[in-house]
Amino acid sequence: MQLNSEFNWTDISCGLGESIGRSQFADLHNVLNGKKIIFTCFKKNHVPVGGWGLDSNQKQSIRTITPVREISPVAAVDSSSITLAETEDGVIYAAKCGIAFALNGESTMHLKVGPILFYLNDQTLKESTLDYRLARLILSDQESANRMIRLRVERSVQIKISNQLARSIILIDGALRTSPYETTNQNIAALTEMCLIRNNTLIGISKNTSFKALSRISMPLAKTKGTVYSDVGMIIQSLSRNSMGKNLLVKLGDGPGPVLRADIVCASGNLEASFGKFIANDSMAGGYPETLRLAHHISTFTNTEISCLRSYLMNNYNLEELHTEDIRKTLLGSIPA
Poorest-confidence range of 20-29, 80-89, 123-132? Predict the structure, then answer.
């Protein structure tokens, strides 16, 4: 069979593109013309410098947070996990946790927990308390497994710290919300209860949010001088049922800085006083808590640590290392991912 040399493949491809565009989406000229735009990168969160320049239709009550010069230790916790190796029936993961302390505006000490090795396969997950469907997801999706490991390591450390400290501030990376990856005795509810018993303030700081409604109304805070906040509990509660504490948008520090989501649970019930103690005892470099920044760097894996973990596995568990190949590179050659 011979192809017709007069067959115009260019017209066919253009016609298909136009047909799909008309059937699935609105006319781009009508909906995009004159819009402000930012170009995003894969797995990276970008925000426009200075905001979108839009005035929010929602009336916002912006309040100033005044530092409260009262000694109250700050303990920040963050973690990281990596996929280290695979076997014929499971996956080996490694996790680290960083803890940073501050007092009276200065860092005092930091700790590293780990690296800790985890092996997940059918047998180990059967012995866990995970729901069957969630266990199957973790076995098939390494990103979900890493998320579960990070969360469980962090909860364990956070609850331990909250039990040891009193009248202090426990700072965590991310929102205060329940998760199906938590265990029944080490979850956000148990952490909150322990903080209330020990008269600790629990604060969760999120670097970014999936709720676009929050980014659209953040411009008034970004333009306001000083450390300020706005209560966005009604918005959060309408979008998510698993959030805990008071839900805020905050700008930390006197100078320009990012607008962050902050969830707070305070035993005293005085939100502004509790937040004031936090900003007085931690330092806010670039509008972000220095303790959380330090905890993040402590928990990050280095190439040397990864090499040492690989050597540890080979030297202690009688493993046989197999040669590997990059399937994508083998099939596609030098075509970039």
Answer: 20-29
Q: How far apart are CA 281 and CA 105, in angstroms?
A: 4
Residue 157 — pLDDT band, cuts 50, 70, 90?
Answer: very high
Give the CB-side neighbour count of residue 216, counting CA atoms within 13 A.
10
- Residue that the structure tokens 């493993």 belong to: 319
Q: How many other CB atoms sit within 10 Å of the CB of residue 71? A: 11
Q: What are the counts of helices (DSSP H) followed by strands (DSSP E) for the chain?
A: 13, 11
Strand order in the sheet with 62-64: 62-64, 228-231, 246-251, 259-265, 201-206, 169-173, 74-86, 90-103, 106-121
Q: In the chain, which ranges are E strands?
A: 62-64, 74-86, 90-103, 106-121, 169-173, 201-206, 228-231, 246-251, 259-265, 284-285, 288-289
Residue 163 CB coordination number (10 Å):
14
Measured CA angle at 205 (ends 200, 210), to 5 deg: 140
> Residue 56: its pLDDT value, please?
47
At 213, the amino acid letter reads: A
Four-residue CA torsion sign, 146, 149, 152, 155? negative
103: three-class secondary structure by DSSP = strand
| CA atoms of 162 and 159, how far apart (whole Å) | 5
- Token look-up 């609850």 returns 159
Dmax over CA atoms of the chain, in Å, equals: 86
Q: Output the six-digit token pair for 286.
A: 């670039």
Q: CA-to-CA distance for 32 and 210, rounded, in angstroms? A: 22
Q: Which of 4-8, 105-109, 128-132 has the lowest mean pLDDT?
A: 4-8
Does the pTM of the predicted model rise above 0.85? no
Instruction: Name residue 94's beta-bridge partners.
Output: 82, 117
* Nearest one of 298, 300, 301 to 100, comparing CA atoms: 298
